[in-house]
Amino acid sequence: MNQQPLAFRMRPSNINEIIGQTHLVGEGKTIRRMITANRPASMILFGPPGTGKTSMATALAKSLQLPFKTLNAVTDKKKDMEIAVEEAKMHGQMVLILDEVHRLDKAKQDFLLPHLESNRLTLIGCTTSNPYHSINPAIRSRCHLFELYRLTPEDIKEAIQRAMDDKQDGLGDLTIKMTDDALEHFAQAANGDLRAALNGVELAAFSTPASEDGTVIISLDTAEECMQKKSFSHDKDGDAHYDVLSAFQKSIRGSDVDAS
Q1: What tens digit of pLDDT does each residue of 95-131 get?
Q2: Which regions of 68-152 does DSSP assign to beta strands (E)?
Q3: CA-CA distance, 189 to 101, in Å (whole number)?
Q4: Are 41 and 122 in contact (CB under 8 A)?
Q5: In percent, how much of the chain has pLDDT > 90?
Q6: Which sequence spans correspond to the domains of the chain?
Q7: Which of 25, 115, 172, 187 has the fewest Cβ atoms within 10 Å of its own Cβ atom?
């Protein structure tokens, strides 16, 4: 049995498999244009958890048929970045996917800057933080900034169905019958976080006993047990703090700008 989480296994292998984020990867949009022109550029992808930042970065590198390396700005050391640069010299170019890019310390930043300038390394940084607040200006000025949005319930339903049908990486080897209200629960309770939805579906699929004919029936009760409703995003240092307060205020005044 593959022990990797379903959400990891179902990551898109190219840009056409990305669900949602059409404002970036739709026809004529910026990232799609980069791929069509075969002109990769360094970028920062930012947005809430589970919106597909690392998945998009990987799909972009694969679509461009470029070698890539994934590192974490917190846990990986400067030495790991030096190795990535040496590999880039061997290949001529490399995509460096850097998770938690807002946590990049000064030594690592200073090391990366000249390689970003020469385009030997194409940086795709991923973060849940607002890059205008959290990313060093020297790095930020060398990157495009792209915001990823929470997925819609319809996007999440599409991803769940794809996972249940996929025999190679998904749950297609199981005979699963998911009720409509269970599917709706996963889509709504995820609050735009696809990783959370797929984790819930995977737990439901493997923890529910099959019926006599081998069918795993995922009911609403099962869905509710396997996925609790996610709370809203609320970070004390970033924009979400103000977004929540703004939404609350608007809900009180009914979006009437003149209401008190």
Answers
A1: 999 999 999 988 998 999 999 988 889 999 999 999 9
A2: 68-72, 94-99, 121-127, 144-147
A3: 28
A4: yes
A5: 78
A6: 21-147, 153-227
A7: 172
Compute the mean pLDDT over every residue in the chain, rounded to the nearest whole number: 89
Looking at domain 21-147, its CATH superfamily turns out to be P-loop containing nucleotide triphosphate hydrolases (3.40.50.300)
CATH number of the domain located at residue range(s) 153-227 in this protein: 1.10.8.60
Q: What Rg value do the Cα atoms of the chain yield, rounded? A: 21
Evaluate if residue 246 carries a pLDDT over 70.
no
Question: Which residue has 């599917």 as its token pair?
Answer: 183
Phi and psi at residue 31, in whole multiples of 5°? -70, -35
The torsion angles phi and psi of 207, rounded to 5 degrees, stand at: -100, -5
Query: Which of the 8 DSSP states describes residue 254?
Result: T
Show Cβ contacts of residue 244 under 8 Å, excluding neighbours closer than 6 positions.
Answer: 232, 233, 234
With bands split at pLDDT 50, 70 and 90, how would you rate the model's confidence at 235? low
Amino acid identity of residue 81, one-letter, is: M
Structure tokens at 140: 């930020």
Structure tokens at 131: 């890059």
Look up residue 191 and give its DSSP letter.
T
Q: Which bin fits 38, alpha (ψ -120 to 50), beta or left (φ > 0)?
A: left
CB 156: neighbour CB atoms within 10 A? 28
The predicted-structure confidence for 165-179, as pLDDT tens digits, reads as follows 999 999 999 999 999
What pLDDT score does 10 carry? 96
User: What does the pLDDT average to over 142-151?
Assistant: 96
Residue indicated by tokens 């030096």: 82
